[in-house]
Write a structure and sequence with these properties.
By secondary structure, the chain is mostly helical. The protein is about 65% helix and about 0% strand. It has helices at about 10-20, 30-60, 65-70, 75-85, 110-120, 125-130, 135-145, 150-165, 175-180, 185-195, 200-215, 220-230.
Length: about 230
């Protein structure tokens, strides 16, 4: 019943005013991350409450019939409150974004990258406060289809390195799309370094992604993964 927040056309200042505090979620200082996480918890509680009120108004006005219900002032007001709450929270503010070809100029892009970096660097905190596997997957796929500028390209390269260096988490396989999108000497050199790490998983994962980069025609499927493991083993 509820709709996504319409934040796709907001400018950078509007995003910063609403969500500038969210960069504390990836701060090196645990105290700073805790402050930001507490603020996010408050924002998400507001979203939950607004959604409950919107759904209740939907149920109350349902007997009016579809056309009359959509004009009912109380329902329209509840909807506006819910959408506004979404704009101040993560991941909700990221649910509405432009087509991948326009992501490079989207003012919300820094917050999409922030959300993915938070999951990559502090996975347990992300899971506790904002677990959203579907949002993670959609953002990764969208970013893999865009044409990143130098700054975004560097951030995506960092994300691929972070992800292949850790134990697998849900939807991590989507990062192969990003690796292929930013493939180049810098990424390959980083993957080669990770492939020599102490962690068996890091070595395996980096080796697999590196192998796929050399074979762009191969799909990143479970069958491809199992076949590579069998050959490497």
């Amino acid at each position: 019943m509820a709709e996504h927040a319409g934040t796709g056309t907001d400018n950078a200042d509007a995003w910063k005013e609403r969500l500038g505090w969210a960069f504390g979620l990836i701060a090196d200082d645990p105290a700073d991350r805790a402050v930001a996480a507490a603020r996010l918890a408050e924002a998400r509680a507001t979203v939950t409450d607004a959604l409950s009120r919107y759904n209740e108004m939907w149920r109350v006005t349902l007997p009016l019939g579809r056309e009359e219900q959509m004009r009912e002032p109380g329902l329209l007001r509840a909807r506006r409150v819910y959408l506004q709450a979404q704009r101040h929270s993560l991941p909700e503010a990221l649910w509405s974004h432009p087509a991948p070809r326009n992501l490079g100029t989207w003012s919300g892009l820094p917050y999409a990258l922030l959300f993915l970096e938070w999951e990559a660097r502090f996975p347990q905190e992300w899971t506790t406060h904002a677990k959203a596997w579907g949002t993670k997957q959609r953002l990764i796929r969208a970013l893999a289809q865009t044409s990143p500028g130098p700054v975004v390209r560097a951030k995506l390269t960092d994300l691929v390195e972070l992800v292949v260096s850790r134990a697998y988490r849900c939807k991590d396989r989507e990062y192969v799309r990003v690796a292929r999108a930013v493939d180049g000497p810098e990424l390959r050199a980083r993957l080669d370094r990770v492939a020599e790490a102490d962690s068996p998983w890091a070595r395996t994962h980096a080796g697999y992604v590196r192998w796929l980069l050399e074979r762009p025609e191969l799909p990143n499927t479970s069958r491809t993964w199992r076949g590579w493991l069998a050959r490497e083993g």
